[in-house]
Amino acid sequence: MDDAMSGQPPHKKFVLNGPFDLEVFTNCVIWERHPLLQFHSHPEVESLRAALVLKLRQQYHEMCHSRENIEAPKESFNRWLMERKVVDKGCDPMVPSECFSEISLSMYNEIMNDIPIKLVKPKFSGEARKQLSKYAEAAKKMIESRNASSESRKIVKWNVEDAFQWIRKTLNATFEDYQQRLSHLKQQCQPHITEAAKGSVEAICSKIYHLSCEYAKKIHQKNIEIITADGLKESCPLRVQNPKKVYCYPCVLAHPCPKQPAVHIFTDKDTTHLRYKNDSLRISTLYFQKLEQLYRYNCFDDRKFNLFLTRVWSLLKRYQTWFGSNESSPTQGALPLSVFSVLHKHFGIKKLEDNVINEISFYGESTRKAKEELKTNSIARNKQLSDLKEAKLVRSSSFNEVSNVFTTYELHLQKFEYKKICDLKKSTMKFFLEFIKSELLFHAKTIEMLTESYGHIMNIDADRDLQQFCNYFSFTQLGSPKRDDSKTTVGDNMQTHPTLRRFNSAPNFNSSTNPTNNDSYDMNTDSKSIESIVEHSESDSELDVETNPNLLDRLKPVDRENSESVSVSLSLSSA
């Protein structure tokens, strides 16, 4: 303690062995603080504080029920305590007693949101219809019983009557229709209802604050009585002379510690029980050991652990007082909502939820609702069918109801199927977009390979290939066919030689002039073209395709029934 107060780091590094392995050391530097004027915790004071806070909680529930005819919002009193302690400058560590604004915005908004009734998210269309009717009736009843202007009453009553007429006329409304109608009614009526209930709600908030100030005075008086009975006096505010920067150290209380009563302890398996008089509190044994380790390091005024059990009991009692006797397991009062929001955005969870989780969960919720609505309609349909069989005399009246059920059933089924198709379309489009991107990349690589192949083709020796071509055809043996009116094709008399297989796979650059299956082939023209090619090859040993653009098509023998087409690419060298 002396090292910490003098601004020097502790000479010894404490290592507390245990399940948590606490290694306590700080490098945080703060200004030296004056001792606090709060009293030491005492079981009698904590019991009194718990009773007064419970009474204040009950009064809050009673005022909400009697003045606004609503139940107090869940956990709103606990949030009010936390919101008040942020701005409270009183001496009590829990009960607000000195706040700048008497009216809490947190409590005001939560009460106003439940007026005229508390709205919940319904599961079925029937529940949505019932909630719309209740809200309309409650709004009408409230605006008539409050001191509101004539214009506000006129607007609220007109919208309420319009909502009732819509409910009577619309028999086959969907779940979304009821929700949209409720939202429209609330948007039109809520401003006038808020203006009418503003004074009453502010009176509730102000009354709770004044009661809290009175209870804080009673708690303070109880602390004075305890230290007076032990012969101690209340300390005056203290100041630090010549403040300096020191390493962070535990808080120091200005008031002396009074004599503490005995607290009994016993362990039951994994739970430790602490009992004072008839009030027994429990804590996990593992965390009880953690508190013991922290107490050993931080509480310098009780080295012998004489006050440890009493202070732990007071701590547990204060937690129970804060959250109430029916504290739920997920209750978290350590950090405010704004801090959790910053952490939520900092770790990037929001983006993951918006892009992935929300879409999947929304589709699952829609599927569940559709199943429930279909199940409800199916039950109603079966009931109507059974009634139809039993009551044949009233078949005409029952037929209309059955048709309505069938219509609703088909409508929901079509709506669900349409949404499923849209979702499948969306996911399929996304998949094909990725597939097209991969195919474009593949074809880009293919173009590179074909470009390289084209370079190799450019290096083909035209003279040598032409010589092989002429040697293969042996024009002298082929002869000149006679012209026939039936126009038979030469493909029946020609066969592909193995030496020209690469000419067969060559691409056709002039596809517009290829003969089709319905066109005839002129043998006389082909014979003249072949003779001109032979004469040209013997004279120049080179074939000029540019002078004869139809040469490729004429040199291509076609066998439509028995053989494959042969394509000779001779224009690559000239290109």
UniProtKB/TrEMBL annotation:
Superkingdom of this protein's organism: Eukaryota
Record's compositionally biased regions (Polar residues): 488-498
GO cellular component labels: nucleus
InterPro entries the UniProt entry points to: HSP70_C_sf, PCIF1-like, PCIF1_WW
GO molecular function, one term: mRNA (2'-O-methyladenosine-N6-)-methyltransferase activity
Coiled-coil region(s): none
Biased composition (Basic and acidic residues): 553-563
PCIF1 WW domain segment(s): 290-350
Annotated region described as Disordered, given as residue ranges: 480-575
Bias (Low complexity): 503-518, 564-575
PANTHER family for this protein: MRNA (2'-O-METHYLADENOSINE-N(6)-)-METHYLTRANSFERASE, PHOSPHORYLATED CTD INTERACTING FACTOR 1
The protein's name: PCIF1 WW domain-containing protein
